[in-house]
TrEMBL record:
<protein>
    <recommendedName>
        <fullName>GIY-YIG domain-containing protein</fullName>
    </recommendedName>
</protein>
<dbReference type="InterPro" id="IPR000305">
    <property type="entry name" value="GIY-YIG_endonuc"/>
</dbReference>
<comment type="similarity">
    <text>Belongs to the UPF0213 family.</text>
</comment>
<dbReference type="Pfam" id="PF01541">
    <property type="entry name" value="GIY-YIG"/>
</dbReference>
<feature type="domain" description="GIY-YIG">
    <location>
        <begin position="3"/>
        <end position="79"/>
    </location>
</feature>
<dbReference type="InterPro" id="IPR035901">
    <property type="entry name" value="GIY-YIG_endonuc_sf"/>
</dbReference>
<dbReference type="InterPro" id="IPR050190">
    <property type="entry name" value="UPF0213_domain"/>
</dbReference>
Length: 97
């Protein structure tokens, strides 16, 4: 995967704690979450399964999408995940292949 602006959702487990983020390098950023390099919410709550992401052309777009998703109720985020990833697979493994 080339470096592209993305908005993403991480989960601690299926239907677990969710985290919404934005990055210009998804592989690097998720690696940072997974290895505990990022202090804060994801490290504290063990949120490091990549369960959904969306690639964008320019950084302004995922930033706006992140703001939108952060205002959504939890059930809407779960529906979004399950539309593309019904079994809550950790998509990280597909990125590193």
């Amino acid at each position: 995967m080339t470096k592209q602006p993305c908005v993403y959702l991480l989960a601690s487990q299926q239907n677990g704690t969710l985290y919404t983020g934005v990055t210009s390098d998804l592989l690097k950023r998720v690696y940072q979450h997974r290895t505990g390099m990022v202090e804060g919410f994801t490290k504290r709550y063990g949120v490091h399964m990549l369960v959904w992401y969306e690639i964008h052309e320019k950084m302004e777009s995922p930033i706006q999408r992140e703001k939108q998703l952060k205002n959504w109720p939890r059930i809407a985020k779960i529906r979004l995940i399950e539309q593309q990833n019904p079994n809550w697979q950790d998509l990280w493994h597909a990125l590193v292949v």
